[in-house]
Design goal:
Elements (H helix, E strand, L loop, with lengths): L1 H8 L2 H4 L26 H26 L14 H9 L6 H11 L3 H15 L3 H26 L22 H20 L9 H20 L3 H26 L3 H22 L13 H6 L10 H32 L18 H6 L9 E2 L2 E2 L10
Antiparallel strand pairs: 1-2
């Protein structure tokens, strides 16, 4: 049965155009072709990425955070209360009013004290500012290096300037070492993101992030199996072109450099909209060199061979990614609107820390200072008196 499933899975008609077989893609005469077995290396590489990330965050990101004066806000811990802790862990982190009243009777606390306990307990579980900064630093470093490397891989190739050459001779297209390593490193990195997503900072688009990582892994893997390598390198480089800008904006935001954060965010928003919603589906320029990526994958292949399963599947996964781009563009435009209207730009996906609101809590904080709203652990400053870079 396993052999039958294996044969069906690797049936040529699923992966290759009509009249072509896997025998046509066997290495010969010094020409090397993409093979499924090549991707086995991505799993140990993903684990290596996690190890490198650990040491990077410890020995690079942490000192950088200190250099940029990333400061943690002192959090008041919820006092030990078995009744409330049991409810928090088993029933929910935000009890309704009726549940607050019930918990008040069971614990012997007032309703306000119960609500205060849950606020503090939720804040305890929220990731620290340093953790957010470390994660953003790691992703910024990878995306920047990946974008530079990706451009180095494709900028001297003829298909970077002429989309039709992406399919010239397909699928009998010899693989070059730079393409191999670009694919292996990108795929390994997304595997590492998927492995670490449970322990990373959870944002409001957590489910969308999982869908994105899974779709990206499937798309990169399938494009390798089906020899869509030339198109794949173009698409990966296009995606990397804006991600490092977002991560750098987050880093400056966590450091309290609001003006720098806002300026980088505006650049990121422009690059994201142009690359993901204009160049990728429709238009004609990344420095006038990358016209109509989706047009390239949807139309040009049909000029060479009839549509097959791989053609439909690849473009379906591209459609899934495009829907995610639209979703994130909506969040970006919301943040841009806040910036234009004078509100502080912040990550719409962030789970912001709750503030202490009662007089008793302010006194307990020591100093009786008036509580102010927080954004990513920093007090929101009046727009006329923001912290200068």
């Amino acid at each position: 049965m396993l052999q039958t499933l294996y044969d069906y899975f690797w049936w040529e008609r699923l992966w290759l155009p009509v009249n072509l077989t896997w025998a046509d893609l066997e290495d010969r005469d010094g020409r090397v072709y993409a093979k499924a077995s090549d991707l086995y290396i991505t799993l140990p590489l993903a684990l290596l990425f996690l190890i490198i990330r650990y040491f990077f965050e410890l020995y690079v990101a942490t000192p950088l955070a200190a250099l940029l004066n990333v400061k943690e806000k002192t959090r008041l811990r919820a006092p030990l209360n078995p009744t409330l802790e049991h409810f928090y862990l088993t029933s929910g982190k935000q009890p309704k009013q009726a549940e607050v009243e019930l918990l008040s009777r069971q614990s012997g606390l007032s309703g306000r004290q119960v609500e205060r306990w849950f606020r503090r307990r939720r804040n305890q579980d929220r990731p620290s500012l340093l953790k957010k900064f470390r994660e953003a630093s790691w992703r910024f470093t990878f995306y920047l290096i990946a974008f530079i490397a990706g451009m180095a891989v494709i900028v001297d190739k003829p298909w970077f300037y002429d989309m039709r050459k992406v399919w010239e001779g397909y699928p009998i297209q010899s693989l070059i070492p730079s393409q191999y390593w670009y694919y292996m490193i990108e795929l390994s990195f997304y595997w590492s993101l998927l492995f670490s997503i449970a322990s990373d900072v959870k944002r409001k688009d957590f489910k969308e992030q999982i869908i994105h990582h899974v779709a990206t892994i499937i798309l990169i893997s399938f494009s390798w199996f089906a020899s869509y390598v030339r198109a794949g390198t173009l698409i990966m480089a296009l995606h990397d072109s804006s991600d490092y800008l977002l991560e750098s904006a987050k880093m400056f935001n966590y450091a309290g450099w609001k003006n720098t954060c806002n300026n980088i965010f505006i650049v990121f928003a422009i690059v994201f909209i142009i690359t993901r919603l204009v160049i990728l589906p429709f238009c004609s320029c990344l420095s006038l060199f990358i016209p109509r990526i989706l047009h390239c994958t949807l139309v040009y292949p049909l000029e060479l061979y009839p549509a097959f399963f791989g053609y439909y599947f690849f473009n379906f996964m591209m459609g899934v990614l495009q829907l995610l781009h639209i979703f994130w563009a909506y969040l970006i435009l919301r943040m841009a609107h806040k910036f234009i209207t004078g509100k502080l730009v912040e990550d719409e996906r962030s789970d912001r820390e709750e503030t202490e609101s009662s007089e008793g809590e302010e006194a307990a904080a020591g100093g009786g200072a008036k509580s102010r709203p927080l954004a990513n652990g920093h007090p929101i400053l009046n727009n006329n008196h923001r912290k200068n870079d």
